[in-house]
UniProtKB/TrEMBL annotation:
Lineage per the UniProt record: Eukaryota, Metazoa, Chordata, Craniata, Vertebrata
An example Gene Ontology molecular-function term: heparin binding
Organism of derivation: Equus asinus (Donkey)
Keyword Hydrolase: no
Protein name: Fibronectin type-II domain-containing protein
Cysteine disulfide links: 74-100, 88-115
Amino acid sequence: MDVRKSIPFVTSPHIQHIFSFPEFVDRDCVFPFVYGDVTHYNCISIHSDYDWCSLDTKFQGRWRYCTGQDPPKCSFPFFFKQKIFHHCTKEGYIFNRSWCSLTKNYNRDRKWKQCSPQK
């Protein structure tokens, strides 16, 4: 049996069963996505042995395992100027768009990415 077939599952207080869903291999991850009432900006390993992502902004059973080609991950919390950020921020971006640091210390490393337009 292939260990990578450890499929993410979702539970709900309104549903008494655990559901499994097949992997969608040739689709792009959607970031951020909501799973278990939590917004995720990176691939996660919740309920799985391997990192995976949702293919929808709110997890609806469509997912796939993450690969090295997936977008770089935000590093939360991160340090910028004299503040600690736990979410994407528009602070310091001249185009008034949300961004996040790819490392814990943006001041030192200066590595970042733009967050989704909804933020």
